[in-house]
TrEMBL record:
<protein>
    <submittedName>
        <fullName>Uncharacterized protein</fullName>
    </submittedName>
</protein>
Length: 248
């Protein structure tokens, strides 16, 4: 009998390493789901794009990195190749969207109508190549597409008040409320839904100090490396669990 398992592609940049670790360590259960990883790290991620009706690497270097990530030698993705695709990280950065808008909205006369907020969300999504690829992949309805943006920067690893970091630029955003976050991320979610893509929001229990991720979800050895972007396998497990529940 043919397999009745669903197929899931985790598509992204270096952030997908935490998903691989979460699955490998058994932190997330994917019963009945076959998983492939697909993408590229670093600058090579820029060389993945839509070419000849499929998502492909556009350089030999990107193709070599892709081969090291995808164990099955898959060099392209098109609608219908997978039941589910999860864009993970993939350069859609919450820390490039939420703090700047909270900063604007906290100014006198900084109120943003829903129409203006949705327009800002649309511009932000439109400027992300991976979000455009997600829209294309979801276009004919054969593949369910999810997008987990790059999460908020990690608190407690570096001083966010120094060196033109977030709180140096926007000191007031440390008091961002859950309601403010929900409104802004809700605008992103609504705009992505228009494209047939389901946004996977960062869980509220992982957010601290308004626009940061709790240090307990820091990537391994973050203190030594100063890595405030990547997160732990425990964090990835929370995100993938959300996708699995939604897929059911």
């Amino acid at each position: 009998m043919p397999s009745q398992n669903k197929s899931l592609c985790v598509f992204g940049d270096s952030h997908i390493g935490s998903v691989r670790k979460a699955i490998g360590d058994g932190k997330v259960k994917l019963r009945g789901i076959d998983v492939e990883f697909w993408g590229a790290t670093g600058e090579n991620f820029r060389n993945i794009n839509l070419v000849d009706d499929a998502i492909r690497p556009q350089s030999d270097e990107a193709a070599e990195v892709l081969k090291s990530i995808n164990a099955r030698g898959r060099l392209s993705i098109a609608p219908g190749d997978f039941d589910l695709v999860l864009f993970y990280g993939a350069r859609l950065r919450l820390s490039s969207f939420v703090p700047s808008l909270v900063h604007h909205m906290r100014k006198p006369h900084g109120y943003m109508s829903e129409a203006v907020l949705r327009a800002a969300a649309r511009r932000f999504i439109g400027n992300c190549r991976a979000a455009r690829l997600a829209k294309w992949l979801a276009g004919d309805g054969r593949t369910r597409v999810f997008f987990a943006p790059t999460p908020f920067l990690t608190w407690g690893v570096l001083d966010h008040r120094q060196d033109k970091r977030t709180l140096a630029l926007y000191p007031e955003v440390e008091s961002t409320t859950a309601e403010e976050r929900a409104r802004l991320i809700g605008a992103l979610s609504a705009e992505m839904a228009q494209d047939g893509v389901t946004l996977v929001p960062q869980p509220e229990e992982t957010v601290v100090h308004g626009v940061f991720t709790d240090q307990k979800y820091a990537v391994e050895n973050a203190a030594e490396s100063g890595d405030i972007s990547h997160k732990s396998a425990e964090f990835a497990a929370l995100m993938v669990d959300s996708v699995v529940r939604a897929a059911k």
